[in-house]
Every structure is written in C-alpha cells, then in structure tokens.
Amino acid sequence: MTVIGKLYGPLNNFRVQKIKLVAEITDLKLEYTPEFELFKTNQNEEFLIKFPLGKSPAFETPEGLKLTESTAISHYIASLSPSTNLLLPESPLNASKILQFILFSETSLITPAMNQVLRKYSYIPENPSADEIDHKTLVKSLAYLNEELNGKQYLVGDRLTLADIAVFADLIYPFKYLIDSEARKNYPNVINYFEHLFKLEAFTKVFEKLEYLD
C-alpha cells in the first residue's frame, strides 16, 4: 500500500490518534514519527523550515503539501478515501452540521478541559476564577451534547462521520482527568455514545482502552 504522507507528532497524543483513526477507517497508509518529542522535535530547525509555527500534529505529502491542524489533516485524508463520502457529508446540510460539531468540540469541549488539566498538573499557573469559568463551560457543553445524542448513535445522520471522530477524541481528556464517576451519571447518552464508538474495531485498535476518573 502506498504511503500518502508523513504525520509528525507523538503517537500517544489524542490529536495524532484522531488522524490515525481516520487513516485506519479509510484504509490509507501514513508514515508516523514514533521518535517525535513535543516541545523539542517541533522546535528544531528542520521542522520549523517545513512548519514555521512549530505546530503538531503536522502532515506532509510526497508531493510537498504541508498541513497543520488535526481537523484539516483529518479532512484531507478522508477526502482521499476510495469509498465515496466515507466519513464526509452527503449533503450541504450535513456538511454544516458536521462542521458545527467539530467546531463545538474544539471550542467548548477540549479547550476548557485542556485548560483545567494544564492547571491541575501545574503546566500553567493556578487560576481559580478561570477554572470556574472553564468548568461551567465544560459542564454546559456536556449537557448540550447529552441532549443532542438522545436516541442517537451518531451525531449527524445514521453513520460515522468526522464529527464523531472529533468529539470522541475530545472527550478523552475530560473523562480521564476531570469528570468523575458521580458527575458522569449526568451524561448517560454521552457515555453510551463514547463507549459505542470505542467498540468499533478501528477505534479500539487506535485508542486501545478507555480511562475514566474514579
């Protein structure tokens, strides 16, 4: 199988795993960088010549296309799928809904969650007032997602799309580090959705296991 491009980033990073999952589902082959060290590899001269912002994940094709941002890379890979419309929208309406959920996930799930995790483990200074705002945003977003998933297996239509992959990946940190077993009882539809996706073969292969805060 021909390699379609090289993905730069640590293999245990959830954004790298998101892209790896898209490649797995679409049956496309990527070259990975298991030696990649965040904050080191992405700051060396060779990397910065290719990707001046020093962002990871980053992606490069044999033809010279260079991309950053995991959503953009995921979309590009999905667009190369031999199966028509696999993971991509079937209509303009669904395209808008998929984009809506991806942006919601980036701004209202992983951003407030990541802010709290970074403070919790002292990667950035403590800030109780900011923590309170981020916590409220995350709780409100999970409640919204729980309502959206009522009676549904997938976010848009009746099949897996890039929206599901984005939201699944962005739920990993909240459930692993922030939302304990008691709090998770408030989001039964989200938990059912999260675990349903994980049971799909490609998800299990890439993510291996789910981890929850006690």
UniProtKB/TrEMBL annotation:
Residues 91-214 form the GST C-terminal domain. The keyword Acyltransferase does not apply. It comes from the Eukaryota. InterPro entries: EF-GSTs (IPR050802), Glutathione-S-Trfase_C-like (IPR010987), Glutathione-S-Trfase_C_sf (IPR036282), Glutathione_S-Trfase (IPR040079), Glutathione_S-Trfase_N (IPR004045), GST_C (IPR004046), Thioredoxin-like_sf (IPR036249). Residues 3-85 form the GST N-terminal domain. One of its GO terms (biological process) is translational elongation. GO terms for cellular component: cytoplasm; nucleus. PROSITE patterns: GST_CTER, GST_NTER. One of its GO terms (molecular function) is transferase activity. PANTHER family: ELONGATION FACTOR 1-GAMMA (PTHR43986), ELONGATION FACTOR EEF-1B GAMMA SUBUNIT, PUTATIVE (AFU_ORTHOLOGUE AFUA_1G17120)-RELATED (PTHR43986:SF10). Belongs to the GST superfamily. This is Glutathione S-transferase.
